[in-house]
Amino acid sequence: MILLIKYTLLYGTVLSLVAFGGMFSERSGIINIALEGIMVIGGLCGVVVLSLLPATFSPFLAVVITILVAAASGCIYSLLLGFASINLKADQTIGGTALNIMATAIAMIVAKLVNGSESARVLYSNKSFLFKIGTLELNVFLIIAIVALIFAVIFLYKTKTGLRLRSCGEHPQAADSVGINVYKMRYLGVGISGLLGGIGGFAYIVPAVSEWNFEVGVSGFGFLALAVMIFGQWKPLRIFLAALFFGLFRALANISSSTFLGDLNLSSNIYNMMPFIASMIILALTSKRSRAPKAEGIPYDKGSR
Amino acid sequence: MVNNKRAKDVFNSPGVRSLYSSLICIIIGLAVGFIVLLMLSPRNALSGFVTIIKGGFSYGGLGIASAIANSVPIIMTGLSVIFAFKTGLFNIGAAGQYTLGAFGGFLFAIVLDCPWYVCLIMATLFGAIWGAIPGIFKAFFNVNEVITSIMFNWIGLYLVNDIIYGGGTGVMYDRNYTKTYNLKVYHPSSVVPTWGLEKVFNSNTVTIAIFIAIIVAVVVWVILQKTKLGYELKSCGFNKNASRYAGISEKKSIIISMVIAGALAGLGGGLYYLSGTMQWNPQNSNSLPAQGFDGISVALLAMLNPLASVFSALLISHLAEGGGNLDPRYFSREIANLITGVIIYLCAFSLFFKNKINDILGRKDRLLALKIERESIRSMLPTDKYVESDDENAQKEEADKAKEK
Amino acid sequence: MDELNVAPETIVSNNDYIIEMREITKIFPGIIANDNITLQLKRGEIHALLGENGAGKSTLMSVLFGLYQAESGEIYKNGEKVEIKDPNDANKLGIGMVHQHFKLVDVFTVLENIILGVEPTKNGFLQKSQAREKLVELSERYMLKVDPDALVENITVGMQQRVEILKMLYRENEILIFDEPTAVLTPQEIKELMAIMVGLAQEGKSILFITHKLNEIMAVADRCTVLRKGHCMGTVDIDKTTKTELSRMMVGRDVDFIIDKAPCKVGDEMLRVEGLSVVNGHKTTVSDVSFNVRRGEIVCVAGIEGNGQSDLVYALTGLMKETGGAILYGSDRMSGGKSVGSVNGKYLHGKDTGDVVYVAKDGSNINSKFLHVGKSELNKEFCPQNDEGGHKAVSLRKINRTSIRQRNAGGISHIPEDRHKFGLVLDFPLEYNLVLQRYFEPEFCKKGILRKKNITKYANKLIVDYDIRSSLGAKSLTRSMSGGNQQKAIVAREIDKDPDLLIAVQPTRGLDVGAIEYIHKMIVRQRDNNKAVLLISLELDEVMNLSDRIYVMYEGKIVADLDPKEISVEELGLYMAGAKKMDNIGARDNPFLNEVLSIEERLNDGKLPENKRNELKKAYDSVYERFVAREHEYTRPNVREEVGNGKQ
User: Who contacts B98 (Cβ-Cβ below 8 Å, separation ≥6)?
Assistant: First the structure.
């Protein structure tokens, strides 16, 4: 049971961080399909820096530095999406897909380079990210996710910038007519989404295991986070709860062999499938009344009449 | 005079404009690849770059054969993406449909021992079914097809792996090799024939699959360009409201389009794995088959032209072959993937470039249209009452009026 | 008028003018939107900017508002040269604008929309209460009541406009631009708006008022600058000019929108709508609407935008499902649907037995005289009686459940209100658009393969017949064509199908005078060819000039059935605004109808004992007589004045 909670929180944390990322981007009007790739890049940079840090390095500083690196790298990578979709008005879905493909290639190249071998497996120590409450093993990312939740609620609904960001996702012409720089707001949205996506990718890899093969990428978690975001109706608190719900499904796969579920004799493939099937059912049921930001996916062209 | 004009038209035609922008994408993509090579190992960069460019030609017939064989599945997934795109759908689910197609092929080859053409048909059918699902979700539940097809990529992958592996006891699973049974050895009648092509290339990888792929590309082109179905699907892709107004069922079009897209990707999976040289590894499949995503590159690089997809697929396969030939001591083979990724990224806005080019070249057309419009208005009016609206005329008009008074 | 008052004023730097735009030129790809235009706005005046669609009014204002940058020209405020690069600059200079399409975020509250861009904050946090106080104070001072916490998507269009005005006042703008503000308002709301504008001018605000409606200019403006095709035709004082002169300046010739048309010769009933209702989302947009259209007449459904006309048309054409009522259609080309009528005095019963149907009769007052025939066996006894006098009755089909394609093929043509949304696939070549509903016909398609040669041939024929101009003829990309020619292409396609019923929705929206006249001519020709025309229009002039009969729609209901020859524009306006209503419109209002129907229902019950049946039949006969008598009586509906109409 403890194990189930542990994994639920682990995956819930990842999903909520990344889904918050998607939310910021879509609220500003940019569909961020590239979250999967951003996660890979964030995870890659964080893990590589972590593996390169000397063993004597202060654990606290190591945690802070690696998370900052993951966030920064995700953010920078997301700017590529911003550039294509905001400045060049590219199709956001295609641009995002391209970034996903590039991310895997980059991850493999860098991982192999770091190893100096043909394997994309990177080893590191994750001890400093973990802490315990009683017998429940938790990680620092849970704290970050909760902070991100609070930040998202306050930012979107209580601040000037949040109001402006939302207006760009709903009606960029209106925003423009009152002197709001739509491009800037959309860059902000995409940037925050890259930041959170990067941390999310790092959070997916580091706390669970102490080595990672980048051939695997993040196995569809970025896309799952998008489903979580839709299920959460682009609202922070609902996204958080949806993430925990999906996290639970995913956690079942991890503990299936070690608990009573093992007796059911279902293969891990079935459990792996579960969150995806669940998300499809939920999307089918909810999408009729789901309300995406109205202007998402539509490039904003200042000159168009 | 006439010839001259025609020649001009050729250079100005949309097809040629597309070619320009594709070429720009390829060149920039290769340049980025070269820069990466330089960063990794400046000394070997040039030779590495040459290796990539040489691609399939590095090892004579063998390399060429391999490049051709590998282009077949991505021609098909490329066609799949193109077909859906014409109806306004982004089929990112080609990977899953491809997986199911491969599975269909294996099922009918290994378990039912059917001849190769039956296996191919079944592969197509399995892909079509998997393609239909996102179509149905889109048409009836209004769920974005991108999300659905991604989800069903993973669901398909886990499902196929689970059935093939079957906890290590699957009927199609060869425990000795931890892969599916080798078709060449156990089910030769299910392998797509080569019709003597192995002698041409001195390699057994090339089968008639490449011809099937080319024929299918032509068929897709004909469907889109010449048929009623193509008209309806494209109309839906361009403007679903106007299509509804014209009495075309949008739901039907979405589903048909996704079924055909799925069928194309499924056939791709069948053609690849029924060639007999590749087996499916159900355990090492935590990532989706790359051919699915390469299809997107093929489609975009071909500027969504089905015939051009054959060439763009050959190019991408050629580069991948080159990436594989890189010296692993200095470079990893994924550099080729990176180049493809860069090319798609550029393609994403090369559609924008293309529109820009069209805009600039089209400006003349629009000016002409404007002139024509003016004339058409004038022709409708009583002749002498229409006054051209420059200031002089207006003043004259006013002066006349004053005189009258 | 002895003075020539349109000579361009000499340009002097002058502090009288709060805003001067000098020699502004703005070029869009392929069009010179503004050519050397000078506009001078005096402090505290209402300055109208008059011009046809596409004359460049909105462009000029967008330049002033910083949305576009002019290619050349200068802007002065109080005699000082200023640069306006974006709306922020305009805002700083005290320039505010109410756009034609409101720039409001639907899911935000009124308050949020008003403060957007100038949010009061403390350490980056919104201070809404502060903003609310200011808003309440403003709305009281200018008598512009709004609910600060209502979501914009839930308030009326008139209210949304108030929000836009408050947005400018909140920013303390001195120069207020109104871009075609009256297009979406009822005549009453327009009056209110005019009063507000005058009030604002008295408070010292300077107002620029963009419009193409001369009456409004004559009512409120002090001066007027006229644009035509991107050129400035001069500025005039309103009290020294006339409407005729203004319209001549605007169009370049005398325009009277009076259309020569012969008196209409009404024929068979082509469309009969009975109690039609449509629910869109959660809102009933069309409720219990009944009317008819006959051959040889143009029937107009007038009304302010958003009173259900769009959804009515969508239901008639099959783009939307109705939630109640019947659509009966009289063309024998219609293959689908249920045949429910009779032909040549002989009653032919359709396959359906479950539907209540009407048979319209030919005759002098067909509008008021229609006979109920009902269903099942019993009708045989009653129907011949109905056809006494040898009337020719028309067969009607209930087409509620027919597909869009069946309706297309059945002779219903539809010129949609939004030509880019519904009318055309802009990325198709023109020829493909010209066969948009016919591409599958044997002429254009054989065994699933398109017959491109025939398509091109047909397209070329239409291009010649209807004078559609484009750069590459049939192969032109539709997107590259001008709005007027796009609309002509739609009109050509719809009319060339030789429809029995033409449904034209705002067929001249956004077009200039030449194109408008052409399309009006085509519509009248259709009527003169003994076809039925249903026209949906928001333009009062168009309604008055084209139609033979007018129905007015207000809040989803038909509130008036009018004769354009007997009614004034003002009165029409009152109906459109919901200030006046008629009773007894449409078939449902015959008080005996329900009785007739209910008795018939019982008669159709097979289990009814014979004696009871005879009794009922007698009762039916007497009720039916009264029903018919009432139908004869039914001439014009009663007019009822709505007292204390809820607006304000």
Answer: B73, B76, B77, B127, B265, B266, B268, B269, B289, B291, B292, B295
